[in-house]
Amino acid sequence: MKSLIFDNAFVRDLPGDPREGPDRRQVHGAFYSRIHPTPVTNPVVMAWSREMLGQLGWDETVIDDPEFAQVFSGNRSLDGMSPYSANYGGHQFGNWAGQLGDGRAITLGEVLTDHQRLELQLKGAGPTPYSRTADGRAVLRSSIREFLCSEAMHHLGIPTTRALCLIGTGESVVRDMFYDGNPAREPGAIVCRVAPSFIRFGNFELPASRGETQLVKQLADFTIRRDFPELKAPATGPLDQSLYAEWFAQVCERTAVMIAHWQRVGFVHGVMNTDNMSILGLTLDYGPYGWIDNFDLSWTPNTTDAGQRRYRFGNQPQIGYWNLGRLAGALLSLFETQEPLHAGMDRYVRVFQSTDKNNSAAKLGLTAFTDADEHLHQSLQELLQAGEMDMTLFYRALADWDLSQAPSARWDAVYYDQAKREATEAQRQDWLLRYSNRIKELGLHNEDRIRIMNRANPLYVCRNYLAQEAIDQAHQGDVRPISNLLEVLRTPYTHNPQYEAYAQRRPDWARNKAGCSMLSCSS
Ligand code: AMP
Ligand code: MG
Question: What's the pTM?
Answer without folding.
Answer: 0.97
